[in-house]
Design a protein that fits this description.
Largest sheet: 6 strands, mixed
Number of helices: 12
Distance between the termini: 27 Å
CATH class of one domain: Alpha Beta
Oligomer: single chain
Pfam family, one: PDT
Radius of gyration: 24 Å
Number of strands: 15
Structural class: alpha/beta
CATH architecture of one domain: 3-Layer(aba) Sandwich
EC number: 4.2.1.51, 5.4.99.5
Function: Catalyzes the Claisen rearrangement of chorismate to prephenate and the decarboxylation/dehydration of prephenate to phenylpyruvate.
Order of helices and strands: HHHEHEHEEHEEEHHEHEHEEEHEEHE
Strand content: 25-35%
GO molecular function: prephenate dehydratase activity
Shape: globular
Catalytic activity: chorismate = prephenate; prephenate + H(+) = 3-phenylpyruvate + CO2 + H2O
């Protein structure tokens, strides 16, 4: 039964006593949940075998977080409440089996931020130098899952990620969206007025182009492998007495002990990057899912129309269509398609069956829960 506001004490000593009592109750319930999680692990290993047991269930976690948001009565917001439960679930899952998550590194990147947002903080982080290395780490079994960027709301798709799916057996197991806020950073001993070079990833420099043109036109912009690498170079330059700045997020500024000169300098305030969770298993329906396909069209007139017509006729909402060179035949192309629904849904299954008849190749990259947070 929920507490009414009128039932809450109004004096400071009584309020503190009430908070202490609630903290004790919350702590007891969290530990009880953790014990249940340990029991779940025992049951799974007994039924599925120690080596075959699957502990992380993306569809189950998505359902839990949705219910958390649906039943939330405030005053905490839905997303804030879900974030709290996200970390509780992460800590409980670590009791079952700590997960090793590979991501596009180095540490301090937005991809690491996406990994922590999706899996919580109770994971073993494994930064990789390139997107294809993330794929290899998961394929080899060295990591349970990987996190890679796939598209940005202002700069478009990440082609390297799309191309990596062609020769990979990995599946898309989830997605996570991260609002991208860029900061101009310098080492504590650097005078911002003396800055001559600004380091960052080329996409971040592009996302802050108008701001840089207005406020820092004199500084040379240097593209590096990642925002975190730019932050590392700025820290190193500061130690050597050089006036260098970096553009990166909060996690990089904390990691490399840099000062924020200007915050949220991105040209578009709604700048968002979508990341994919890649793994080895197929994900059952969660009730609110998305499916991604790779389709090679036949080289004939009207081929693309015949592919897309199936979506309209079966009432399936296609949310993304990207074209990439096939790398097999000259002027041949493959299409990456996202649509709403799970591949096991009747309508979606009908669309996929028709695509297989009309295309030279159809590869289901995965059906997975729509991002909750």
């Amino acid at each position: 039964m929920s507490t009414k506001k009128d039932d809450i004490p109004t004096t400071l000593p009584l309020l503190r006593d009430r908070i202490d009592a609630l903290d004790s109750q919350i702590q007891r319930l969290i530990n009880e949940r953790a014990m249940c999680a340990e029991k779940v692990a025992e049951v799974k290993m007994a039924e599925q075998g120690v080596q075959s047991a699957v502990f992380y269930r993306p569809e189950r976690e998505a359902q839990v977080l949705r219910r958390v948001m649906e039943r939330n009565e405030g005053p905490l917001g839905n997303e804030e409440m879900a974030k709290i439960f996200r970390q509780i679930m992460s800590s409980c899952l670590a009791l079952e089996k700590p997960m090793r998550i590979a991501f596009l590194g180095p540490v301090g990147t937005f991809t690491q931020q996406a990994a922590l947002k999706h899996f919580g903080n109770s994971i073993v982080s494994a930064p990789m130098a390139a997107i294809d290395e993330v794929f290899r780490e998961v394929e080899s079994g060295a990591a349970n899952y990987g996190v890679v960027p796939v598209e940005n709301s202002t700069e478009g798709v990440v082609n390297h990620t799309l191309d990596s799916f062609r020769g990979s057996r990995l599946k898309i197991c989830g997605e996570v969206e991260v609002r991208i806020h860029h900061n101009l950073l310098v080492a504590p001993n650097v005078n911002p007025d003396d800055v001559t070079h600004i380091y960052s990833h080329q996409q971040s420099l592009a996302q802050c182009r108008a701001w840089l043109d207005r406020y820092w036109p004199h500084a040379e912009r240097v593209a590096v492998s990642s925002n975190a690498e730019g932050a590392r170079l700025a820290e190193e330059a500061g130690k050597n007495g050089k006036a260098v700045a970096a553009i990166a997020g909060d996690i990089a500024s904390e990691l490399y002990s840099l000062s924020v000169v200007s915050a949220n300098i991105e040209d578009h305030p709604d700048n968002t990057t979508r990341f994919l969770i890649i793994g080895n298993e197929k994900i059952p329906p969660s009730g609110k899912d998305k499916t991604s396909l790779l389709v090679s069209a036949k080289n004939e007139p009207g081929a693309l129309y015949r592919l897309l017509e199936s979506f309209e006729r079966h009432g399936v909402d296609m949310t993304r269509l990207e074209t990439r060179p096939s790398l097999i035949s000259k002027w041949g192309y493959v299409f990456y398609i996202d649509f709403v629904g799970h591949c096991e849904d009747a309508q979606c299954r009908s669309v996929i069956e028709e695509l297989r008849e009309r295309a030279s190749e159809v590869k289901v990259l995965g059906s997975y829960p729509v991002a909750v947070l």
